[in-house]
Design brief:
The protein is mainly α. The termini are far apart. The chain is built from 13 helices and no strands. Helix 4 crosses helix 7, helix 7 (175-199) runs antiparallel to helix 10 and helix 10 (230-245) runs antiparallel to helix 13 (280-309). It is flat.
Amino acid sequence: MATITATEAGTAPPPVRRRRSKLRLRNTLIGWSFILPNFLGFGLLTLIPIVVLFYMSFTNWNVFGTANWVGLANFERLLGDGSFRISVVNTLYYSVLHIPLTIAVSLGLALLLNNKLRGVAFFRTAAFFPYITSIVAIAVVWNLLFSPEYGPINEFLRFIGIQNPPGWLTSPEWAMPAVVIVGTWRDMGYYMILFLAGLQTVPRELHEAARVDGANVWQRFVNVTLPCLRPTMFFVTVMLTINSFKIFDLILVMTDGGPGQSTLVMSQFIYRKGFEESQFGYASAAAVALFFMCILVTIVQFLWNKKRSN
């Protein structure tokens, strides 16, 4: 009777199996060595603080004492807090103005700078530059531009015949539109880059075919460009919505929530309650509320995009 080797029987010899096990272990360790630093950073700087935040939202911790469990008391207090309700309304007000305006301006810039123009690289850089400029420098310059008495903006409005120009940052009615203008100017370059990347994926053959069929510029934009930009538009809308809900630094250095509470937003409300009044439990509850608002809006956007894609 012929002897049957381990290979002929369908199983590798023990030395081969050991080498394979060592190779799999080596590949696993190499893979973990790549992802472990990022995983540790995520866990220490993001995941653990989020878990602590949710726990703190159910306590009355104020840094100096122990964190006593109060259940839903902080959230019930939020519902009756007039300043919190104002901050929610102002956050929605800012987002409703900022999101469509930024999309329109950044998409328009992307369409313009997607053409082969002389010095197009310079103009792309110039449009992106405000996004990486210091927020303090931006606030100082725009506060001077919006000065009611001596600002260039109001001087120009008087020059064209408007006798009583807005008070801008000193007016409760015009302070938020002024912040929206600055926020749009600051963010348009970043989202312009995203739209430019999306425009590079639009097949030129589709535009040529539409032009041959007699479509004008607007018809090609609506029926060719926009459908091809749907994934980019969805991503931009989601990111812009989340960033608009989290607006903080620009308002802090430009208006500090004023005049009165006309530009008080949720992020600044959280900052005041936590770092100025040391009510970290209450501030954590407000942060949880902001978190769920962002999650809810994002889910609605995902469902709407899925419905349109089907």
